[in-house]
Amino acid sequence: MESSSVNWEALDALIIDFAKSENLIDDSSPPSSPSHTSPSSPYVSSSYHSRLIIRQIRLSLEAGDIDAAIDLLRAHAPFVLDDHRLLFRIQKQKFIELLRKGTAEDRGRAIDFLRTSLAPCALNAYPEAYEEFKHVLLAFIYDKDDQTSPVANEWAEKRRCEIAGLMSSVLRGHLHAFNPLFSMTLRYLISIHKGFCFQQGISSPISDLIKRLLLEERDPPAIPQESFCEAPLFDEVDIQALAQAVELTRQGAIDSLRFTKGDLFQAFQNEICRMRLDAAMLDELVHEYCIYRGIVESGMQTLSQDEPESGYSSSQDCSLEVDYSNAKCSFSETSATTDLTSMRGTDVELRYASEPANNLENCSTSGSHQSGNSRHLRNRSRGAGERSKRKRWRGRHDELDFISDIHVNRCAKPEGVENINGEDKYEIVLGVQELASRGMAAEVVDKINALDPNFFTQNPVLLFQLKQVEFLKLVGLGDHSGALRVACSHLGPLAGSDPNLLKPLKETLLSLLQPNEDALATGLPLHALATSLQVALGKRLGIDEPQLMRIMRATLHTHTEWFKHQMCKDRFESFLRIDSLKENNTPVLTSLATSKSNTDSCTLGSSQVTISSTTRVSDDGGSPNQASSRDVIFDENAVLKVMVS
Asked: Contacts from 27-30 at CB under 8 Å and sequence distance 24+?
């Protein structure tokens, strides 16, 4: 099965927002969970508090501690106990739990409870309640271990889970305590992925992961308020959109809309949150991803400040530091291409605010001519600033030992790679990714060649892309002769050995015809390139990419294919930020056009695109189509002849 390119910067923003919303990381800045419905999450802290209460009520009900659940409901959600339909279900379960204890005293308490509470409630709950009440009386006669009894279902412990799920659905809807956006997006994408694979009769490459992550059972739907008036009329388009998105019957979609008084997106959130994820596994996947992307501390032992510089440290001003453990993964989350900027907000400020300005002024592709001692001092200064930018992983119970339990999957080290200690090589990859995200192509090539001379032999497309970056930077600086030297020495020979690179080569050469300020407007995607380098180099060093990256690639691809088959656009794509995760047409390197002045010459926009021509996503939600408005007819052999001459 194919996989789609992913805007990893957009995913970073969603992951950080998720971790903050679930209080998984230590961070002073509040998350900003987006919502299309204003009452959905007015305050994230209150939403988190509500989710904790719902979780505790659920655990109490699943454990059979009905009194504890009722106490929590009375304190935090008394409206549930005012609804006789819900109250009857809770009290019926309490009656069963009293009998389950099996003592004479508890049996007497069950009889008293039956007379004073359950019977009166059954008269006012709903039409079938009294029949259910009479049926549950059979529990006095039939033992809980009798699997053939007419009340075997009442005795079954799964009934606890059903009532717990029902209460969770009702409380989520009333308290607007929905799961964080990333959690809902992941549920939705996996659900579509499973449906697509089943319909097409193909096996999923991530079936082992999603079977454990997305549970088969769903919580029961929330019960809409009873109304003696005529049923409200909902837009049929909304009914069908909701029914198809979350696999409901038409009547189920209508009931869901009734519960939210016609609010489609709130109904969608209610239904998505009914899908159950394995929370522990999700936390592990997110933690692994955050370590890989440099969002949180890895928990690895860091190198001492007093140790000599590593042989892998850079010889340039913006090189890797000896203390790699606090090197950040990305320096460019300042793109304003989508409203995900608002999600980054304070977090980006926190991660990158301490970057010394003078370090940014000296980033170049040609290398530094400063002395080693000055460079060492600058690296130490910047390394100290970066230590404050990674966050500490707390886990759900603030168990510090949990950090050491989660680790990045490692594979066998391939031949040709020098022996690098396990603590260093992971941080070296992050450092290379950092340089690539800054556009320091020459430094990246030198560093990787020193680390593994065979790397670019096996990854020529990555070398081509890095040289494209170097070419475009030189064009932007007005150094056309230097840009042509790069093209003749590297781009031409690489395209000569791979015909697929001819088109991007031609488009790269067209930048010579544009004004310097415009030459970079269609530049390469630095963050996409940086992530590709991170994955490829990590594998060479024995570090597998996080499993969450596999899941996102596969599910985004099937999402695109699913709606191509449906011949329609996903109504909820923008709400869940799926469009941002696929977004891959934002130009980068534009800030380098002003690099002649001493301003942030290494501050770049962030987006994910393909390796060559501008990519556009069709309006009908189909897959991206390669299209270039500047395609010019060239004799390809003539182009190669010029490049290698």
From this structure: 27/347, 27/350, 27/391, 28/350, 29/345, 29/346, 29/347, 29/349, 29/350, 30/346
Q: How confident is the model at residue 331 (pLDDT cuts 50, 70, 90)?
A: very low
| Predicted local confidence at residue 380, as pLDDT | 41
Give the containing element (helix H, strand E) for 393: strand 392-393
Distance of CA 616 to the CA centre of its chain: 23
CA atoms within 13 A on the CB side of 77: 27
Q: Which of 179, 184, 173 is nearest to 260 (CA)?
A: 173
Residue 31 Cα distances to 17, 25, 282, 497, angstroms: 5, 11, 19, 48
* Cβ(255)–Cβ(239) below 8 Å: no
- What is the 3-class SS of 353-373, one letter each residue? CCCCHHHHHCCCCCCCCCCHH
User: pLDDT higher for 238 or 398?
Assistant: 238
- Contacting residues for 36 by C-beta, under 8 A, at least 6 apart: 265, 575
Q: Cα(454)–Cα(527) distance, rounded to whole angstroms?
A: 23
Report, in angstroms and rounded to the nearest whole number, the Rg of the chain calculated over CA atoms. 29
SS3 assignment, position 574: coil
* pLDDT confidence tier of residue 528, bands split at 50, 70 and 90: confident
Cα–Cα dist 523/588, whole Å:
6
pLDDT value, residue 400: 35
Other Cβ atoms within 10 Å of 573 Cβ, number:
18
**8 Å CB contact between 64 and 155:** no
Determine the 3-state secondary structure of 599 from DSSP: coil
What is the CA 564 to chain-centroid distance, rounded? 23
| Residues 239, 250 contacting (CB under 8 angstroms) | yes
- The residues, ordered by sequence, that sit 6+ positions from 197 with a Cβ below 8 Å of its Cβ are 203, 204, 207, 558
Q: Smallest Cα–Cα separation from 83: which of 93, 91, 71?
A: 91
Percent share of the chain, pLDDT over 70: 66
- Could you tell me if 523 and 483 are in contact, meaning their C-beta atoms sit under 8 angstroms apart? no
Q: Please answer whether residues 52 and 41 qualify as being in contact, where contact means their C-beta atoms are separated by less than 8 angstroms.
A: no
Q: What is the 3-state secondary structure (H, E, C) of 418-448?
A: CCCCHHHHHHHHHHHHHHHHCCCHHHHHHHH
Closest among 440, 486, 443, 446 to 467, alpha carbons compared: 486
Q: Which of 513, 529, 536 is nearest to 604 (CA)?
A: 529
CB atoms within 10 A of CB 145: 8
- 547-591: per-residue pLDDT in tens? 999 999 999 999 999 999 999 999 999 999 999 999 865 443 433
Rounded to an integer, what distance in angstroms lies between the CA atom of residue 275 and that of residue 292? 28
pLDDT value for 437: 83
Cβ distance 306 to 364 under 8 Å?
no
Q: How far apart are CA 326 and CA 430, in angstroms?
A: 9
Choose among 107, 90, 64, 270: nearest CA to 179.
270
